Amino acid sequence: MEPTVVDVEVVERGRQAWQMRACGALVTAVFLAGIVGLTIVSPGRSWTPAQQLARVRQFVQDARTAHFTGTSTWQAGTISGQVGHRIEHSTRAEGVLALPNGSHWTEDMGDSATETIVLPDAMFVRDADSTASLAGEQWKQYPREQRKSAAPSPVGSGSPEPGVISEVGGVFSAFGAPLEFSGMFDRIKDLRRVSPQVIVGTLDVASLPDFPDGEPVPTVTVEVESDTVGRLLRILTTATGTMTAEAPDTANSGDEKFMARSETRFTHWGVPVDVSAPSAGNVDKTPDVDEEGLAAFSAAPILVPGALPTAYQLTDGSVSEPGDAGDCPEADLTYGDPSQSPADPAAVSSDINVTITPANCDQSAIDGGDPITVAGHPGHIARAKNSDEEPSVTVEIVIGATRMSVDSDLPEAELIAALRTIVPFDLAKQRIATAQSPT
Questions:
Q1: Lowest mean pLDDT: which of 21-25, 32-36, 151-155, 306-310?
Q2: Predicted TM-score (pTM) above 0.90
Q3: Strand order in the sheet with 188-195
């Protein structure tokens, strides 16, 4: 019997998606990556579970291409005895992979769909309301290791999101970057056989490099099925655990149990597949900048720092209506050096973030702060620490009809230097960071 969906409130979607990715993408890649240190026995001998994985590894390494289909389901709900809700997300996917660096697949979330192409040095994504509508949408191009919105969206949200490639597109992103997880096999414990063709083990989730500190550790099992020659037929991952839903002052706060299940089946190993970039004329190379929205924003004049460092470009730009991001209409812009790699999550961000709201809309970014004069305009400055306990600075000034809030983890003197002058935002004069064409 299908579980009843009582409610569909948002409950820390990024965390849900991370758990789902740990269950699926990371584990799937283990078996498609190089499983080192295992020896292959002759067909005449009985295989141990480790030897069966070695056979799978050798087969995949030789075949390199395959078709796949998959289903993923996420279920979560408040712990028994608490007032709350229950949610469920399901997706279906199909596509092809060309190891070690290519894949092309579509993912159907029911009320939305996503198509993704992963190449060695670029990634292309397009979204639509349905799989049938995808062909009419423009592709968005991202660098291989980066895509805007580092917190991944939930399964069924309509758009996979990175940080790292492992978080893009759920389970199936692993097909684009299997070598990144070549050491993951060391974290599969208690490998055992459950049938002549199926072996199962437990993933040591807490030891994964990207596992957030302080998070409850889920239980993740991995099941691998292959035939008598080592052909990979199926991977099933199941994760169960508890997470904390952060929804203050609502009935949806508190601990929640979750279950994530992801099954992928493989066919047509070794058959040639086409994994290539879309035509250049159908690709948006600035997917994180909403040029049309910024040009149409009329709630207040958009103002920006006029003395940005030479290497800085507009890397992100969006607008929102009242109620989307706060009580005011808002324009948000981020300037940074696109040559800086986001690979090190511990590195201090050098971005400068600008938020524009109408001056008569009381939505201040600073509670108190110290007086300061910036580019001849009085304002306030707040000094604090970010989530990594590194210094962070926020400056807010009101110029005419515009409230301008600027924040950065840069040293205070460098941020103030960038604000020596403040100029009107001119879209035509912006240097916008663009994705490089794949080679």
A1: 151-155
A2: no
A3: 188-195, 198-203, 219-226, 232-245, 254-267, 65-78, 86-98, 102-108, 113-119, 122-128, 139-143, 283-284
Q: Which among 284, 282, 27 has a CA at the least distance from the CA of 140?
A: 284
Lowest mean pLDDT among 42-51, 187-196, 282-291, 406-415: 42-51
| Distance, CA of 186 to CA of 53 (rounded, Å) | 13
pLDDT at 322: 85
The CATH number given to whatever domain includes residue 401 is 3.30.200.100
Q: Is 316 exposed, middle or buried (0-12, 13-18, 19+ CB in 10 A)?
A: buried
DSSP state of 381: E
**Is the peptide bond preceding residue 154 cis, with omega within 30 degrees of 0?**
no
Three-state DSSP string of 162-191: CCCHHHCCHHHHHHHCHHHHCCHHHHEEEE
Domain count, the chain: 2
Q: Please indicate, yes or no, whether residues 255 and 290 belong to a single structural domain of this protein.
A: no
Q: Cα–Cα distance between 88 and 365 in angstroms, integer?
A: 35
Domain with 201 in it: 13-267
117 and 63 inside one domain: yes
CA 36 distance to own-chain centroid: 28
Residue 259: how many other CB atoms lie within 10 Å? 18
Does the residue 241 lie in any domain?
Answer: yes
pLDDT in tens, 383-418: 887 666 678 899 999 999 999 999 998 999 999 999
Measured distance CA(201)–CA(197) in Å, rounded: 14
In whole angstroms, give the CA distance from residue 359 to residue 324: 18
| CA dihedral for 203, 209, 212, 213, sign (positive or negative) | positive
Q: What sections of 184-264 are H helices per DSSP?
A: none
